[in-house]
Amino acid sequence: MHIHILGICGTFMGSLAVLAKELGHHVTGSDANVYPPMSTQLQAQGIELTQGYDPVQLDPAPDVVVIGNALSRGNPAVEYVLNKGLPYVSGPQWLADHVLQGRWVLAVAGTHGKTTTSSMLAWVLEYAGMAPGFLIGGVPQNFAVSARLGDTPFFVVEADEYDSAFFDKRSKFVHYRPRTAILNNLEFDHADIFPDLPAIERQFHHLVRTIPSEGLVIHPTTEPALQRVIEMGCWTPVQTTGVDGQWQARLLSDDGSRFEVLFDGALQGTVDWNMTGQHNVANALATLAAARHVGVVPSMAIDGLSAFKSVKRRMEKVAEVHGITLYDDFAHHPTAIATTLDGLRKHIGDAPLIAVIEPRSNSMKLGAHRDGLPQSVVQADHVVWYAPANLGWDLAATVASSPVPTKVCDSLDAIIAEVKAQVKPGTHVVIMSNGGFGGLHGKLAEALQ
């Protein structure tokens, strides 16, 4: 079967392409922007990519067109599909029908930490010999691919609350029908499709409605929005994590790199790993609860976590030049920026820390999170903000109240000049964006040489 994927370089759609190829289909695809790590992964799998949406790519007609949620009416390829009456489907629907049907699905949902937690969970199951399938919105370094079918009943999926397609405005995760569900946290996000937090809570409750009564819901005790979701009605056993939860962590190091795990008050073991930050400790507790639900004893799961290598673009060290360390990170929401910088700060102590931030997500472009930005960077010593001409709101005015010295730049060259002027040996520079950031990481490393 020939499957053509529109919007193939998005993390979800690219992973879907890998699974379709593994199922034996002929897979092609296109995107407006073709960039790593997804483009590299797809080309390595022998998947043919086209830049842009010229309808000529749909002739001869594929058997089915999978349409990504970034595409809307007016897109030339979408209009061609509709006018010619070609069969089309959303990515989440295709995944549910062709991959997830009949499997024990473990879904990881939440505003932050989905990619890291689903990577942890897939790895812990792998470590325990359960060889799960998975689809993750990033590339876990323990696997080097973002998706695989697996040949056991278990399948780990990163369960996103973003909408499914221009013709299906339900959240992606309502298609997945998990038996084990992690709800990590819940804040306002995706301002381009959700008017307010209650609208997102409603979608999360749609997910809760699909979880069987013999399944399990896992959530932290510290999230009022998730508490409200559960109070709308829950027909499934619940386990809690964190403060006052059934699963708790006792920190043995400030940066979260060593901690004891307790379940119902009983010590289960000690995680000693190369991850940092309170957010990753929380991710680990949810992972342990989910793994136990499918039969992995906590002591083995803890050993698995200690061998976990994180995810590409999640505090990934990308270069070290003359004693200056560069990291790539995906954080693009004030809470994620704050927790990531806090984890790094606790890890590096008093060393100089520079953050370079691109407000690139749709919510950021709409200015939905701007009030949280000035305080999100308090752990940095210096912050460089990128304000491209098309941002649509005054970033400089917004961050003027930040307690941290800041510089707003309108080009990559200006960012590189500013960082060069600030760094000295021993400085840590973290570059935060949910896109390619124009290849800034490589250009900066070169400039520092």
From TrEMBL:
One MF term in the entry's GO annotations: ATP binding
Domain (Mur ligase N-terminal catalytic) ranges: 2-99
Example GO biological process: regulation of cell shape
Reactions listed under catalytic activity: UDP-N-acetyl-alpha-D-muramate + L-alanyl-gamma-D-glutamyl-meso-2,6-diaminopimelate + ATP = UDP-N-acetyl-alpha-D-muramoyl-L-alanyl-gamma-D-glutamyl-meso-2,6-diaminopimelate + ADP + phosphate + H(+)
Keyword annotations from UniProtKB, A to Z: ATP-binding, Cell cycle, Cell division, Cell shape, Cell wall biogenesis/degradation, Ligase, Magnesium, Nucleotide-binding, Peptidoglycan synthesis
InterPro entries linked: Mpl (IPR005757), Mur-like_cat_sf (IPR036565), Mur_ligase_C (IPR004101), Mur_ligase_C_dom_sf (IPR036615), Mur_ligase_cen (IPR013221), Mur_ligase_N (IPR000713), MurCDEF_pg_biosynth (IPR050061)
Gene3D superfamilies, A to Z: Mur ligase, C-terminal domain, Mur-like, catalytic domain, NAD(P)-binding Rossmann-like Domain
Function: Reutilizes the intact tripeptide L-alanyl-gamma-D-glutamyl-meso-diaminopimelate by linking it to UDP-N-acetylmuramate.
Recorded family membership: Belongs to the MurCDEF family. Mpl subfamily.
Protein name stated in the entry: UDP-N-acetylmuramate--L-alanyl-gamma-D-glutamyl-meso-2,6-diaminoheptandioate ligase
